[in-house]
Amino acid sequence: MHGHGHMHGAGGMGHDMANMPGLQGENATPEESAELALMFQRFQTMSREVENLPNGIRTVTRSSDPEVMEALVSHAVGMIDRVGQKDDPKIFIQSPTLDIFFARGERILSEIDVTDEGLIVIQTSDDPEVVAAMHKHAAEVSAMVEQGMHAVHMMMQERVSN
């Protein structure tokens, strides 16, 4: 055990995957943290496609698990609403690429649709720095969909070493 109640090793499986304290935040609701935990615990049920647009992104995300799909839609709608209100949840493991979204939320136009294809999100901006952050964040989310918490650990490790 290390000082934070987390155990490393065992391929990352030594972590507190039940409580996932890193998914809590200074300004996040317990429901938001629970949605994130569910998506990380069952990330294998998810798939995602991203199209980088010149002025933003178009993503299609889905899950074969109806409970995960419900959490995914709730999370996306909630976070897009928070960005519009500049209401940063300050999740402990949150990527710094989100900072610009919360600072410049009024510069982002978002469309959300839930179809048979999955959750479709189109976000655009006339701010080139916001667009660059959208492209980077979309790639980060795709990595989390593919690798779960391992992707988060790799991103955090990369930030520490830079």
UniProtKB/TrEMBL annotation:
Region entry Disordered, spans: 1-31
Superkingdom of this protein's organism: Bacteria
Protein name according to UniProt: Uncharacterized protein
